[in-house]
Design brief:
CATH architecture: 3-Layer(aba) Sandwich
Number of helices: 5
Number of domains: 1
Largest sheet: 5 strands, mixed
Shape: globular
Number of strands: 5
Oligomer: single chain
Organism: Micromonospora mangrovi
Distance between the termini: 26 Å
Protein name: Beta-ketoacyl synthase chain length factor
Order of helices and strands: EHEHHHEHEE
Strand order of the largest sheet: 1-5-4-2-3
Helix content: 25-40%
Structural class: alpha/beta
Radius of gyration: 16 Å
């Protein structure tokens, strides 16, 4: 996903942007309460990087997490554990819902807007921006942290982008 301010039709603009990985990045640091997979740590790392650039002014900020595949590693682990007749650890029930890591980011940063997760079938950027525009248009948020993260079919993180969208005027 590439942040493209020209594609924000309702006047939203990119206030901050971050990517993972950047040169020198290794594996994102672990996140308490999330195990076995790099999905949640990747979301948290890129969100922290983005929000750290600008956040601090009072604003109702929503979180929109966009991922076509979600946390493939955790899903595969649960599938294989169940198929083998094993017991699935309780943390997997918590982290199997992408809203849990989006909510973690919101709580960590004191964001008080809605938390939304999307699984796009088309252009992830267009779907995410459309949701951000809707949240602003409806008056649910002043700013939107839009995070796009994907994993390869084998569960290897391919990277993440986070943008803080805001500004402009509501219609």
């Amino acid at each position: 996903m590439t942040a493209d301010p020209g594609r924000t039709a309702v006047g939203l603009r990119v206030l901050a942007e971050a990517r993972w990985p950047q040169e020198g990045d290794g594996v994102p640091p672990g996140v308490p309460g999330f195990v076995h997979s790099a999905f949640a740590p990747l979301v948290v790392a890129v969100a922290d990087r983005c929000l750290g650039q600008r956040h601090g002014e009072p604003a109702r900020t929503a979180v929109v997490l966009v991922s076509a595949g979600g946390d493939r590693v955790s899903a595969a682990h649960v599938r294989s554990t169940v198929a083998a007749g094993g017991r699935v650890g309780p943390l997997f029930f918590f982290q199997s819902v992408p809203n849990s890591v989006a909510g973690h980011v919101a709580a960590r940063w004191g964001l008080d807007g809605p938390v939304v997760c999307l699984s796009p079938t088309g252009d992830p950027w267009a779907d995410g921006v459309a949701e951000a525009e809707l949240l602003r248009y409806d008056g649910d948020a002043d700013e939107v942290l839009l995070v796009h993260v994907e994993e390869a079919p084998d569960g290897t993180p391919t990277g993440a982008v986070a943008v803080l969208l805001g500004g402009g005027t509501r219609q």
